[in-house]
Amino acid sequence: MNNVYVITGGTGGMGKATAEQVGPLGTVLLADINETRLQEAKQHLLEKGITDVHYQTVDITNRQDVQALADRAASLGKLRALIHTAGVSPTMGDARQMLNVNLVGTGIILDSFYPLAEEGTAVVCISSMSAHNPPKEGPYTLLLKQPLADNTVEQLLPMTENNSGSAYALSKLGVLLIVEEQALAWGKKGARIVSVSPGSINTPMGKQEAAGQPMMAKMLEVTPLQRFGEAEEIASAVAFLVSDQASYITGTDLRVDGGTTPSVAKMLKEQG
């Protein structure tokens, strides 16, 4: 039976780079909200010699869309990996959108694909270094762990003061907490679930954020590696995490940020 690699956000920089790395290992199913970009992504992979590529348009906040994606994956073979890169960043929407897409959308994806999990399945959810800014324990913690509960977004919005940046950080912290919370359930099926927290990455989305947030320049100044990361560097981490080489890694986060997070924390402490 074919090993199927599902990649949400499959037309983005990290999604396509990941598809290039896992594509030779099995069947790739790309998911995104824009069909034209999906067609372009498929053509890009075909030109790279990756021929077993499928795609489906999906709004990850729509349960029917996501269930249709899960059904499509099941029809193609065994779910080897679910790589969830789809999301929005602060310059792309308001606080409500950050929570709906990044938090609730992640909950819907995991809920729909859980029945497909089996021995050897691996899930990687893309979070962000911003997830490491808010304290893990706060009035929002239980809400973030239960993204599909009633009124989750409505209860979280006041805590963000309707600020898209704050909502983004909370939504991505939610991804980390959900991974920790669900590791046991996935583990009972012989499956693993982890998250990856990228730093500033040289992708179209990353460039948009850098242009829209002056703080990004200051962050780069204190980043130990003194540069933005590349999509291929995130993809390499993801490819490792879904491989058998990472077979004892689950319920945790891998920060791939060039060392930015602790350096920024130190800078802020010194300024404060």
Tell me what you see in this structure.
The protein is of the alpha/beta class and about 270 residues long. The protein has a single domain, classed as NAD(P)-binding Rossmann-like Domain (Rossmann fold). About 50% of the residues lie in helices and about 15% in strands. It has eleven helices and seven strands. The protein has helices at about 15-20, 35-45, 65-75, 95-115, 140-145, 150-160, 165-185, 205-210, 215-220, 230-240, 260-270; strands at about 5-10, 25-30, 55, 80-85, 120-125, 190-200, 255. It is globular. It starts with a strand and ends with a helix. The model has no long low-confidence stretch (mean pLDDT about 95).
Rg computed from alpha carbons, rounded to a whole number of angstroms? 18 Å
| Broad CATH class | Alpha Beta
CATH superfamily caption: NAD(P)-binding Rossmann-like Domain
Mean pLDDT: 93
* Assigned CATH architecture: 3-Layer(aba) Sandwich
Q: Please tell me the total number of domains.
A: 1
Please give the share of residues in helix.
40-55%
Class by SSE composition:
alpha/beta
CATH fold title: Rossmann fold
Which spans of ≥5 residues are poorly predicted at pLDDT below 50? none
Estimate the global geometry from the Cα principal axes.
globular
Largest sheet: 7 strands, parallel
Beta-strand residue fraction: 5-15%
H/E series: EHEHEHEHEHHHEHHHEH
